[in-house]
Amino acid sequence: MARVAMASSEDAISPLVQQWLEWDQEPETRSEIEKLRDSHDVEELEQRLRNRIQFGTAGLRGRMAAGFACMNSLTVIQASQGLAKYLRNKHPEIASRGVVIGHDARHRSDRFAGLAANAFIAEKIPVWYYKSASPTPLVAFGVTHLRAAAGIMVTASHNPAQDNGYKVYFENGAQINTPMDVEIAQSIEENLAPWPHAWDDLQSNEILHDDALEQTLPQYTEAVWKYASSTVTDWKQPKPFAYTPLHGVGGLVFPSFCRSKGICAFTTVPAQEKPDPDFPTVAFPNPEENGALDLAIQTADQEGKTLIIAHDPDADRFAAAEKVDGSWFLFTGNQVGALLGSHIFETIDSQGSKSPIAVLNSAVSSGMLERMAVSKGIEFRETLTGFKWMGNIARTLEESGYLVPFAFEEALGYMFPSICHDKDGISAAMVFLAAETRWREQGLTPYTKLQQLFKEFGHHETLNSYFRSPSPELTNVLFQGIRNGSYRTEMTLGSFKIMRWRDMTEGYDSGTADKKPALPVDKGSQMLTLWLDGDVRFTLRGSGTEPKVKLYIESCGASRDLAVAAVCKAFSTVLNEWVLPFAPLMTYSKQLPTSSGHVFTAA
Questions:
Q1: Which of 59, 151, 286, 424 could crosslink 139 through cysteines, CB 3.0-4.6 Å?
Q2: Does domain 459-602 have CATH number 3.60.21.10?
Q3: How many Cβ atoms are within 10 Å of 123's Cβ, its own excluded?
Q4: What is the Cα–Cα distance from 497 to 487, expressed in whole angstroms?
Q5: How many CB atoms are closer than 10 A to CB 436?
């Protein structure tokens, strides 16, 4: 009977195996599927082949391996063919402007970028091709600078070494958003079979501009410099610092950029200076993770430097640390957002503006930017998570007459629309260095400036945590259990009073007149935000790119101790009232809180 069941399972997966081997011409991934077939590993074949990797507003991102469910040459070809046809059929009036294609220094990124270019060349759509690895913001900048129809960046940002991704921008230089992602996904489904020459090595031709990076990089760095230096009255040298690109592409651009502008008093971490797709010195190549900046701290200590500047591997995120009273203080993304925001507001105060001004941050980011903006009479807009929202909303505001100088998200992402409409670690680092010179003239460091802001606007303490979710089904069970409870009707959570309840999945907001959220409702994702008494707010949401449910808590108090106590109480309440009762297959690991959050693992 077991042999019959196995034969039946193999028969069911066999057409997908055959389809893969018919289409895939990459020896390595063909061999993976052949070995799984020959060893009768039906379970693994089902995971690899039954469902396609999902194309969404984040494009594609996942583990590199053979199979329709993974990142590999075939799925990149299919995505590119679908996007090329989408531009040609749905936007023929702009398709002739071409697409910008860049890539980071990860394994296979250059190969994926070349295969992507083939699809657009097949449709006679010009390609502005970045031959060398480069930072992600250069693609967003290149789309608007070159007036292209779209942009593609092959990157998995700060994901582990085995991952890769495919990020898409539209003509406005912002990441694609709904419903465009659905339309592109449909076009991909209609163009799955590789076209003639899809697997060819990229060849020179009249519509391939493979010198695009040499054209664009100087324009980008000049735009960054012009903006950063304009935020101070008189540019002065920043204090000496240590720099790490965490084995990424920031090291190919930022050090030489600094030196070209006379900023030479810095040391790049030697072991992390050059791109290395294996990220050998860090467990996770993300400056938010514990230990990621250990080598930068060692280098700074050896050199007697008290400031650290860091980028993630594709240089779209920026992090900073300062030595305070003999210990290193690692600024959170929210704290850097407040610091950069305050610097932008001071610049506006000194220079003025003829246009109304608006700033943005996401729903999971600190409320401190809003408090600062309101105090200045500046428009503040909250957005859903991700720069796909902030970039496009900034564009809409600009079209209606607003100047939008700044937006940020807590995950170390900062946007300066004067340069590009996506998060940009290179620009953020240069603006931060400019701000440091201003604060130094005021007798402040970044840390003491932050304390000054806390005294003025309240001490904001945050805790970003997560638990691992083995499946989307379990995530849905958790959220449905919460919704089926009496919390929304009784407006209590443990000993907290619920002042406001917002459900972005079901489209409910107790804080609005019509009980509907002002933000766009997304029934395809899970997201709850609660405002509690004691000036506490938290958001629980399912991650769109990782198998996690994320928790973001913030409290504003008269002192750090009060704010920390409120945050810890809120975390304990959410854990005991929601996570443990409604996700019994999850257990809380008994580790102490870290900057990367609490971890929950399957029992």
A1: 151
A2: no
A3: 18
A4: 10
A5: 26
Surface-to-core class of residue 418, CB atoms within 10 Å of its CB (0-12 exposed, 13-18 middle, 19+ buried):
middle
Of residues 329, 392, 342, 330, the one with CA closest to residue 371: 342
Q: Are 232 and 157 in contact (CB under 8 A)?
A: no
The pair of three-digit structure tokens given for residue 392, joined into one six-digit string:
């496009």
Q: How far apart are CA 311 and CA 318, in angstroms?
A: 5
Q: Could you give the maximum distance between any two Cα atoms of the chain, in Å? A: 82
**Quick one: pLDDT at residue 15?**
97
Active site residue 96: no
Catalytic annotation, pick one of 157, 342, 366, 465: 157
Phi and psi at 485, nearest 5°, equal -75, 180
Spans in the chain with pLDDT lower than 70: 1-8, 544-546, 584-603
Other CB atoms closer than 10 Å to residue 568's CB: what's the count?
A: 15
- Specify the 3-state DSSP secondary structure of 571: helix
**What three-state secondary structure class fits 353?**
coil
DSSP-derived pairing of the beta strands 163-170 and 208-209: unpaired
Give the CA distances from residue 320 to residues 20, 380, 429, 504, 601, in Å, rounded to whole numbers and listed in that order.
45, 25, 8, 32, 30
Are both 54-210 and 459-602 of the same fold?
Answer: no
pLDDT at position 2, please?
Answer: 47
d(Cα 74, Cα 58) in Å, to the nearest integer?
Answer: 19
Give residue limits of the domains in the chain: 1-50, 54-210, 214-457, 459-602
Q: What are the phi and psi torsion angles at 556 (to 5°)?
A: -115, 120
Report residue 431 as tokens.
């603006």
Q: Tokens standing for 491?
A: 């407006």
Q: In the CATH scheme, what architecture does the domain 214-457 have?
A: 3-Layer(aba) Sandwich (3.40)
Q: How many CB atoms lie within 10 A of CB 60?
A: 24
Per CATH, the number for 54-210 is 3.40.120.10
Tally Cβ neighbours within 10 Å of residue 518: 11
Give the amino acid at 297.
I
> What's residue 469's pLDDT?
82
How far apart (Å, rounded) are the C-alpha atoms in residues 23 and 21?
A: 6
